[in-house]
Amino acid sequence: MYRLIATDLDGTLLNAHHQVDPFTIDVLRKLERQGVAIAIATGRHYSDVAGIRDVLGVRAHLITSNGARVHDPDDREIFAENIRPEFVRRLVSHDVADDAIVNLFLDRDWLIDRDAPELLRYHQDSGFRYAVTDLRAYPGHDVAKVLYIAEPETLARVETNLEREFADELYVTYSLADCLEVMSPVVSKGRALQVVLDRLGITRADCVAFGDNMNDIDMLETAGRPFMMGNSNPDLIARLPHVPRIGNNFDAAVARQLTQLFDLENLQDDAPVA
User: Fold this and answer.
1) Residues that are catalytic
2) What are the tens digits of pLDDT across the range 16-25?
3) Is the pTM of this model over 0.85?
4) What is the distance between the alpha carbons of residues 150 and 162, in angstroms, rounded to a whole number?
């Protein structure tokens, strides 16, 4: 049976209110008690995801900023990769960012170029907050991820600017239709998942993974048993047509799929998974 569960958060493990469903908490805690390891793999900031892990009540590895950071269950950093500072200084310029809201994810901080209180609804469980900062004055050090938030039309222009300025010198992906994310070119959720697999001595074949958007492609391709959500980005469905689709995130579909996959209804709560 599978030894590691790797899951995205928004649109996947979290419900429509970007919170954890009680049924999901129950299922993940039960699987952990039976010896199954858990990895949360998300574009979110490490400090934010650590708060969500506390709500889940499991000792999960954290793959954050789309793989730019990996922490073990004891919060030790086991992988980190930053964007080159000179690139960051260009990424926050209007020539590249256009009119998008610009965010920088550092080790502990979330910096943003303007007040955007509507974003805080995504962080109800963790309580994570941004700091409004003049990003053009920031020297660009220790940045795991640059996040642009805007309407798709604006992000299309940003994407064109990124291609013109940087070509393949950065990893650029969408986590939502209105969220364009930029990391070092050696970063992805799939590569970070391999770090966790190697650390735990688990093969890809023993890993099950769940995702819903374009930043999940590498992770789904790395896992031996991938699933995508029924609410997945159509571009992801077209890119990975062989990956089975399950229910939607607002119906705790990950937890329901895990219940079937591990036969939890017929397994004693304290029995180890074979």
Assistant:
1) 8
2) 988 999 999 9
3) yes
4) 15
